[in-house]
Every structure is written in structure tokens, then in C-alpha cells.
Amino acid sequence: MKALKNLLYVVGALLALAAIVAIAVAVLFDANKLKGEIERVVKQETGRTLKLEGDLRLAFWPSIGASMGRASLSERTSAATFASIDSAHVAVALWPLLRGETLVDQVDLSGLKVNLVKGANGKFNFDDLLGAGAEGPAGKPAGRDAGGGAPVVFDISEVRIERSSMSYRDLKSGQQIAVSDLRLRTGRIASGVPGKLEFSAVIKGSKPSIDGKFDLSTGYRFDTARKTAELTGLASRITVSSQALPQKTLTVPITGSAQADLGKGTVHADLAAKLDDSNIRAKLGLDGGTPASYSFDVDIDRLDVDRYLPPETASKSGSRGGAARGGAADTPVDLSGLRDLNARGRLHVGQLQVQHLKLAEVNTEVRAAHGRAELSPHSANLYQGALAGALTLDANANRIALKDKLTNVSIGPLIKDLAQRDMMEGRGNVALDVQAAGASVNAMKKSLAGNAQVALRDGAIKGFNLGEALRKAESLTGKAAPQSQAADQSQQTDFSEMTASFVIRNGVAHNDDLSAKAPLFRLSGAGDIDIGNSRIEYRAKAAVVGTSKGQGGRERSELRGVTVPVRITGPFDALKYEVDYGAVATEAVKSQAAKKLEEQLGGKDGGGVEDKLRGLFRR
Asked: Quick check: 448 and 431 in contact, CB under 8 A?
């Protein structure tokens, strides 16, 4: 017992001595005297200039802590500032530290500013500070002691970062991002212990253009042994401001949860968002391999994309066909963002409006890798019909390929919404197999290639009344010159069925097999639709086979057998129809003469009659 008593005396004396020493150090030691030495060592070891402008203060009881005022660190071998801080304070509990545990009472940072730069060579301006990267001295893994013991256990009661900012520049791409008013506050950070986190920041940037604010509040829990972390009760709000937006400011609340396996490098999130009238549910995944890969399953009940397009884009939508002709500003097409994308997923939209097109039950599967993205298969309901096909985007050649089939579609409202023009009515099928490449919309239109087929029924061609042209032809003589008239939307030519196929080269769709049927005529034709320059050059021939009933006129049986030549020409928004009335009248006279002569001959030698008439009219 006496030995134990003596031991306690010794221990007590040692503790008293340690306390006296600690108090003496805290009172007598001036850390500011070391500022010059610290700055010298940093310069020697890193080639960077450290300026400790504020006071350094140390504390040893009841926790070991350090505080400092304003300080800055320069770029390597440069006077430019890499990072600076107004004030910082860190305190570590003493007794847990003696057991190999790091229990941080509090971490406070205020006025932190960091300038990150990615050089044209792909290296960052902080790479030299990483040293051996994930390895500690002598090649030993960081986070373990020299003897290879267990990782240091840490427990942080709170982290607070106030009034901080960060800037990022990519010298090769020109991308710039500035984060300001950054604020972070956490609860306790310890393995297996739930905590609460709050974060907010203002973000501005270019390429892409960003001007917004981000707020986040979430619960968290992580397990250091399993290397897992999870966010629960996540609630965030993203506010985007842009003069290009019709509403100028857009706010999107997001809720949900997320889980991460740091050992495997995977992240999964289950999120819900509200975008005006749109309700969005998304399951997202990230596999942080090399390269990183993404997965998604997104469901949107309704989405009006036109609602978020810039006003100038919406105003030009009615004159898309004349953009190239009128010299309007072209729209760039840049698919380079696909080059580093590795993703797979599914998208469903209940109701979708984009570029005035209205679709329902839009479904597509997406696969992106090696600079290519495939939306295949995709399907949708539109204009009383259905769409199915595949879309491929190729960033390696800035190329788009589309293979679609529209079945039983009402073509009139489709063209009205797509091209903002009332050109045709009818219902039927359309097949497209086309591709285009180029750096802009106009360049792609002029490079368009492929083929297309159209089969419609019970429709009408708007802007011209062929029946009226036939009635007019009867009153003219064969000497009448061709007459041209502008398209008149109050006029139309009805048909019971129509088919046509197109071969597309360099933005020009060529057709030579037009076939349309109506009670009065059979229509054939050939010509070009110049999509790149928004023009048409087409010649149609209508063979009169019946009467003009059903075309707004009385019976004209005397025109039976007459061929009506019609030339359609001009820009999409100013088409003109030219009818050779002289040829129509001549054909009508020839047809009537042939009938009378045949009647006189008793129906014999019909071929001879035609030859004689051809010589008579020199046709």
C-alpha cells in the first residue's frame, strides 16, 4: 500500500508539473515570434510566399488550439494570390489525443478565398501541394501511424465556414466559375453519429453560363469502417437568374436522399423536384471508375420546354424556314459535351412540348459512350398517331442521325406546330432515315442526307385550287400565256390518297414519283425541295379523269383526258403556283377534237386519230 501511495504522489507531482509547464508556456510563449521562421520554411519547401499578417495565438488547456488572423499563400514562384483567409480557429481535445483519437472541438474559418486554375496542359495550380498524393512520408499510406497501426479516430463537434469564396478558371476551354457568399455549418462529425449540415453559395460562371444560388439542408451519417455515407431528409433549392429566361428567375426545389460507398466509389440518389408545373422523379447513380459512368431513371409528368426558351428564339420560330435566306443569326450545334460522357438510363415524359411540337407518353432509353449518344428505342404519341425510332448523336463528327416512323399521324397540325405553316391536311404515315453534320443548324440543314417516304389519305394541299384552275382554263384559248399566282391559304386542292418518296442529298430532297388521286384528277410530279435554302422548285402534272365535283365546281366532262401542268416555286414562306393555261386549253381542244373525230370514224383507228391531232397542234 505504501508503494501505491508513493506512486500516486509521483503521478500527482508529474501532473502538477505538467500543468505548471502548460500554464507557463501559454503565458510566456509568443507564437508570433515564429511567424518569420514559418514563412521562410514554407517558401523553401513549396516555392510559395506565405504572409501571416494577423496574430498567432496558441492554447493548451482544456484543449490544444490555434487561432490566426489574416494570412495568404501565393501561387508557386509568383506573387499572385492562391488562397487567403481572414481568420481561423481550430481546437483539439487534449485527453482523447493521448489515446490516439482526434476530437476536434470546433473548426472556424472566415473569409476563405481560393483561386483554382486549370492550365492549358491539364494541370492544376495546386498539384505541387499534393506532394506524394495519397501517400505519407516514406511511402506509407496517409492516415496510419509509422508502425502501421489503426487509422486515427476523429470526432469533430462542429465546422463553420463563413463569408468565403472560390474561383475556377480553365485556361484551355475558357470556362470560368465563381462561388461567393459560401457558408457551411455542420453538426457533429463522427462515425455512426447522425448530424445536420447547412450549405449555401452564390454561383456565377461562363461556358456554360451560370448565375444562380444554391441552398442545401440535409441530415447525414457516415461509417468510417465501412467507408459509407448517406444523406437523409435532403432539401435544397436552386435559383437561376438569366435575362434569356422569359421569367428572368427560375427556382427549383429538390428533396430526397443519397448514399455513397467510398470504398467502391459509387453514389446513388433518389430525388424529387418541382419545376413550375412539372413534377420530376429521378433515380441517379455514379460509378467513380475511370472513366466515371452515370445511370438514371427519370420520370416527368409534364414539361413545356418552350416555356424556358429565350424570347428571341420563340419569336423566330415562325420564320425558321427563312433563316438561311434572310441572313438571320444561325444557331450553333456543339455536341462536344458527349465526348467524356459515359451514361445509361431511361426517360419518360407524360406530356412534352418542345419547339411547338406536342407529344405524349414519351419514352426513350439512352446510352452514351465514346463520344456517341443513342436515344434508342424511343417512342411517343403525337397528333392522333404514334412515333417510334432511334436518334444518334455523334460528337466525334458533330453528326446527328434520325430513323423514325410516324404512323397514322394527322399531318396538318403537325406541320403547323413544326414549321408554323398551314400547308397540308391529311392522315397517314411518314418514314424518315436521315443524317446531318455541321457546326450550326444551317450547316446541318445544308448537309442533310437520307431518304423519306410519305403516304397520306383524305387530305388537301393548301394554297392552290386545281379545280378552279381547270374551270378557268376552259374559258381561255390556246394562246393564253402561263399565269402565276401567290399561295392563297383560303384555297386548297383535295385528294383521297397521296404517296411520295424522297432522296435527300446536300440538303435537297428530290422526288420523282408523286402520285395523288382525287375525283377530278390523277396527280404526278417531280422536283426538288431545297431544305438548306428553304426553297421549292417542283413541277406537277394533273391528268383530268373525272369531273370537278368535290372540288368546288360543276361537272366538266369536256376536260377529261386533259393534262394540267403546274409549276411550284419560291421560298417556303412565299410560294407561287404557275399554271400554263395555254397548254391546258390546247389539250382540252385537242381532247374534244379527238373524241369527235373518233365518233365520226366509229371508234376505229384511234391511234391514227391521235397522230393526226398531234401533227395538227404541233405537240
From this structure: no
